[in-house]
Design brief:
With about 550 residues, the protein is an alpha+beta fold. Helix content is about 65%, strand content about 10%. The radius of gyration is 44 Å and the shape is elongated.
């Protein structure tokens, strides 16, 4: 076999160039893998946790070992290829030059045009990449400089990282796709590259856009809160008590919609008209319906509160109590109506035929009514409690053994706060008798005893005059105090006072009246105290044994 020295040199030169290219690619791959690992950890907000630093170092070491082994295996394969080519008397340099001559030198003008086109595409991609990065950096700097957005500084920094990752990925894969199409790459290369591009851009773009939506909602929430100081309809929105819950709900919903939309988009690009694409679109519409329903319920609650409870100063206390009682009932009815409508629309979006469901609602309601009589009894009883005005929210009532303040009258039950602080929930159907201490007026009853050795009519007149004198200082008292002799006991005359007071104020008024009666009796020298006189026959055996006591 006659192997020329020139062929050996040529093949060695090709082997050296290929080996150098493999080493450069391995170096670049190692750097990019470490950047990807750091990016993932930062995205998960765990990059700074000490317990994960060791795991990160272990992963990087393992991947570096894999890259090194793969590079060594590739170099060995290149060496084996060079040796085999030399053994078969194949000059690799001559083959490469012939291929280059056919590909590039056969038509020099076409080759130059192709080269210029490649350089133009690369320049356009680099120019667009630089402009987009500069624009995003400028916008983020401007937003971060706003003092009101100081709490969002950390989130804005994370948003900058995610947007940078999206821009980098878009630039790299755009260049690969453009050059793949320009070079006329076969389908088995172009299509997998296109699929990978959709996956990477979908995931990275969804994460960046989800964080962007979160930042936007937080900023919008701060602006809405600032509107609370305005004396306009927008001020009501800013003073909305559940605004924080709405903001949180909006952020979570937008995150789900973004990721679900990204998955649907990827599925539609990889396989248009697939089952996953159809399911994704349906789930997006259902999620949007759920969110709209929740927001609609919150808006209804806000509007009802403003319509029913606004202008409380122009209404009586009783009328305001009626509105407080009516508010939760109307809110419950409208909430259930919205939820039922959303249920029907959601089932329709999922492909369920809703016409039989609506048509069968009457039969289903009848069947449920036969099996849930207590449930409907509670609802009907609650309706009549409100319509008849038996009691309202804020009234002091006694229902059975429970006495306290009514805190809520619901569709099915009432809630009464006992004087000890315990909250009692009583089904409406179990309310048989009610003692309302807050209907029109209530009597404050105070009793005391006057000894028989005092002038009872004089004492009664003095007490009445004293109560009449101090009555202007107690706005809860509605009328004159009636004083009567209730009973004649062994210790004296039992005097009873009855005073009309405002509903629910009988205990406080009784304490005040009791203190003033004591002051009146003390002023005229009467000490209301009970005593008994027991007389024993001195000749009785018990008296002889224990001694007679008077």
């Amino acid at each position: 076999m006659n192997i020329s020295q020139t062929m050996i040199i040529h093949n060695a030169l090709i082997f050296g160039v290929a080996t150098l290219a493999a080493l450069i690619i391995a170096f670049i791959l190692d750097r990019q893998v470490r950047r990807v690992i750091g990016f993932v950890l930062r995205s998960l907000s765990v990059a700074d946790k000490p317990q994960l630093q060791g795991a990160r170092a272990h992963i990087e070491k393992s991947l570096r070992r894999v890259i090194t082994l793969a590079t060594a295996a590739l170099i060995i394969l290149l060496l084996a290829g060079a040796v085999l080519a030399t053994w078969w008397q194949l000059d690799l340099l001559r083959v490469a030059l012939e291929w280059g001559e056919k590909a590039f030198l056969a038509d020099v003008s076409a080759t130059l045009y192709a080269g210029l086109k490649i350089l133009g595409i690369a320049g356009a991609i680099l120019l667009g990449y630089g402009l987009v990065r500069a624009l995003i950096a400028s916008l983020l700097r401007s937003v971060t400089a706003i003092p009101a957005l100081e709490p969002q500084r950390v989130t804005l920094g994370l948003l900058k990282l995610r947007l940078s990752s999206l821009i980098n990925s878009a630039a790299i894969f755009t260049a690969l796709l453009v050059y793949s199409s320009f070079a006329g790459a076969p389908a088995y290369i172009h299509e997998p590259l296109l699929t990978i591009t959709y996956l990477v851009l979908g995931v990275v773009g969804a994460r960046a856009f989800a964080l962007l939506c979160t930042v936007g909602v937080d900023i919008g929430g701060q602006l809405v809160r600032a509107l609370g100081d305005l004396n306009s309809p927008l001020g009501y929105v800013g003073r909305f008590e559940r605004l924080d819950q709405v903001v949180t709900l909006t952020k979570r919903t937008l995150e789900y919609l973004v990721f679900l939309g990204a998955a649907t988009w990827i599925s539609s690009k990889i396989q248009p008209g697939s089952f996953l694409e159809d399911v994704g679109l349906r789930l997006i519409r259902v999620l949007a319906l759920v969110y709209i329903g929740r927001i609609l319920v919150e808006v209804i609650n806000l509007v009802l509160r403003e319509l029913l409870l606004a202008g409380a100063a122009a209404r009586s206390t009783r009328a305001q109590q009626q509105r407080h009682t009516l508010l939760p009932l109307v809110q419950s009815v409208l909430r259930y109506a919205v939820y039922f409508l959303l249920l029907v629309m959601g089932l329709s979006e999922l492909g369920v035929e809703t016409a039989p469901l609506i048509a069968g609602a009457g039969l289903s309601g009848l069947a449920l009514g036969l099996g849930a009589q207590a449930f409907f009894s509670d609802i009907v009883s609650g309706f009549f409690i409100f319509v008849e005005g038996t009691f309202y929210v804020g009234d002091r009532v006694q229902v059975g053994e429970v006495i306290g303040i009514v805190e809520e009258i619901g569709v099915r039950a009432i809630k009464i706060r006992h004087e000890s602080g315990v909250l009692h929930t009583i089904p409406n159907g179990e309310v048989r008798s009610v003692a309302n201490h807050a209907a029109s007026y209530v009597n404050a009853v105070v009793e005391f005893t006057v000894p028989y050795d005092q002038d009872v009519p004089k004492v009664m007149a003095a007490v009445k005059d004293h109560i009449e004198a101090f009555r202007p200082r107690y706005p809860d008292i509605l009328g004159e105090t009636e004083i009567v002799v209730e009973d004649l006991s062994a210790s004296g005359a039992l005097i009873q006072t009855l005073t009309k007071v405002k509903p629910g104020r009988d205990e406080d008024a009784s304490e005040a009246i009791r203190a003033e009666i004591l002051a009146a009796l003390t002023a005229i020298g009467v000490k209301p105290q009970g005593f008994q006189t027991l007389r024993f026959d001195p000749k009785h055996p018990l008296a002889l044994a224990n001694g007679a006591r008077v």
